[in-house]
């Protein structure tokens, strides 16, 4: 193509990865091609609903449009570098991103033939929680919309379509510190022309970024919210979660009340029990006081030990006792069983380690 004296050779230009484009962005793209908006919606459906990786297969688009897309754009999914499988059926998937940064997701069986997919929102994490393996990596970068959604697409392709029934943002990173990309990724997930996942099947977990909890409520996406609480007193929580110095418990509970009131959804409090730290009668009393009047439920689970970190796993007896005591005071409680501990895929253990004996795959 020639404009004046400038020759543009698209074959020598780096193509743009279109995976991660939203429906609005694709409609705008087609407007630049002089095409009607519905063409953008068609491409959106091919990318995320039908999960097609070649423009040539998008048969309701004209050949000219497909050729123009092929000249300038590409559809590049995530590359699976390794898969580690636990004795309990949990699978930890290690991705190698385009800039060679590592990323992990976890596919967790629930025992009823269904799976939950735990996905990441960042490479590494800036929060530095004292008990978490991801925090030892430090913050590397945010994931793009395409990389967030790409985890779901790659796992569908590698295993089988619809291999998971629930999606939880509980992998690497603090989702609310990558807020804009998080929201756009969720919109692709819940769109009927996209991945078509019910908002009820999606949970966003946060360490407690209070302003973003309120902002998510205002998005009206109706996804579930989980808060990594772990301690119900300000001073003690600050000792293990530096974020608590910025977003204090009083503001956090205020944000939770706003979320439940705005969405009419209960919030889940995640409470990891550490041996000798947050497992006493006074901790139960503090937790009961904190959540009084909140529309919520509690998930408790034993800490999964991480090399070189000082916290210890409590006994199953201690965890069961803690749960029983909460039930006695009419608190809705679920005791979660840790899965994938033998491959460092359990809660708090993700740190993008390549394990020996893993399966290698590529997109």
Textual characterization of the structure:
- Strand 1 (2-3) and strand 2 (6-7) form a beta hairpin.
- The strands form 4 sheets. Strands 5-6-7-8-11-12-13-14-15-16 form a 10-stranded mixed β-sheet. A two-stranded antiparallel sheet has the order 1-2.
- The chain has helices at 23-32, 37-48, 63-72, 145-158, 179-190, 210-219, 234-240, 249-263, 281-291, 316-328; strands at 2-3, 6-7, 16-17, 73-74, 79-85, 91-96, 102-109, 115-118, 122-124, 139-142, 166-169, 202-206, 224-228, 267-273, 296-302, 333-335.
- It starts with a strand and ends in a 28-residue tail after the last strand.
- The chain is elongated.
- By secondary structure, it is of the alpha/beta class.
- It has 2 domains: 2-74, DNA polymerase, domain 1 (Orthogonal Bundle), CATH 1.10.150.530; 79-343, Alpha-Beta Barrel (TIM Barrel), CATH 3.20.20.
- It has 10 helices and 16 strands.
Keywords:
alpha/beta, DNA polymerase, domain 1, TIM Barrel, 2 domains, ten-stranded mixed sheet, two-stranded antiparallel sheet, 31% helix, 20% strand, disordered C terminus
SSE layout:
Blueprint (H helix, E strand, L loop, with lengths): L1 E2 L2 E2 L8 E2 L5 H10 L4 H12 L14 H10 E2 L4 E7 L5 E6 L5 E8 L5 E4 L3 E3 L14 E4 L2 H14 L7 E4 L9 H12 L11 E5 L3 H10 L4 E5 L5 H7 L8 H15 L3 E7 L7 H11 L4 E7 L13 H13 L4 E3 L28
Helix pairs in contact: 1-2, 4-5, 6-8
Which class do the helix and strand fractions yield? alpha/beta
Task: Spell the H/E element sequence.
Answer: EEEHHHEEEEEEEHEHEHEHHEHEHE
Number of strands: 16
Give the uncertain stretches in residue-range form: 1-10, 348-363
Total number of distinct structural domains: 2
CATH topology type of the largest domain: TIM Barrel
CATH superfamily of the largest domain: Aldolase class I
- Trace the largest sheet across and list its strands: 5-6-7-8-11-12-13-14-15-16
Count of individual helical segments: 10
The rounded Rg comes to: 22 Å
Write down the overall geometry: elongated
Name of the CATH first level of the largest domain: Alpha Beta
How much is the average pLDDT? 89
Distance between the termini: 33 Å
């Amino acid at each position: 193509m020639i404009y004046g004296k400038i020759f543009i050779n698209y074959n020598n230009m780096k193509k743009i990865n279109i995976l991660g484009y939203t429906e609005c962005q694709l409609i705008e793209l087609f407007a630049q091609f002089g095409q009607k908006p519905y063409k953008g919606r068609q491409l959106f459906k091919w990318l995320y609903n039908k999960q097609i990786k070649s423009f040539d297969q998008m048969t309701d688009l004209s050949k000219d449009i497909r050729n123009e897309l092929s000249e300038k754009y590409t559809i590049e999914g995530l590359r699976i570098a390794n898969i580690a499988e636990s004795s309990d059926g949990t699978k930890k998937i290690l991705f190698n991103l385009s800039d060679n940064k590592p990323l992990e997701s976890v596919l967790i069986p629930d025992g009823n033939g269904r799976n939950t997919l735990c996905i990441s929102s960042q490479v590494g994490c800036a929060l530095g929680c004292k008990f978490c393996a991801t925090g030892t990596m430090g913050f590397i970068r945010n994931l793009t919309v395409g990389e967030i959604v790409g985890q779901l697409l790659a796992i569908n392709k590698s295993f089988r379509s619809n291999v998971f029934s629930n999606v939880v943002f509980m992998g690497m990173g603090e989702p609310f510190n990558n807020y804009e990309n998080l929201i756009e990724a969720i919109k692709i997930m819940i769109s009927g022309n996209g991945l078509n996942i019910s908002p009820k099947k999606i949970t966003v977990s946060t360490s407690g970024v209070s302003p973003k909890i309120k902002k998510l409520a205002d998005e009206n996406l109706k996804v579930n919210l989980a808060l990594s609480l772990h301690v119900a007193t300000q001073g003690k929580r600050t000792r293990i979660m530096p974020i608590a110095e910025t977003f204090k418990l009083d503001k956090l509970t205020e944000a939770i009340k706003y979320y439940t009131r705005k969405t009419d959804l209960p919030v889940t409090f995640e409470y990891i029990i550490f041996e000798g730290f947050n497992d006493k009668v006074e901790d139960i009393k503090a937790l009961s006081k904190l959540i009084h009047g909140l529309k919520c439920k509690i998930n408790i689970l034993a800490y999964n030990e991480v090399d070189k970190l000082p916290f210890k796993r409590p006994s199953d007896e201690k965890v069961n006792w803690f749960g029983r005591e909460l039930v006695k005071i009419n608190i809705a409680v679920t005791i979660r069983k840790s899965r994938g501990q033998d491959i460092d895929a359990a809660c708090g253990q993700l740190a993008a380690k390549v394990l020996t004996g893993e399966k290698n795959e590529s997109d």
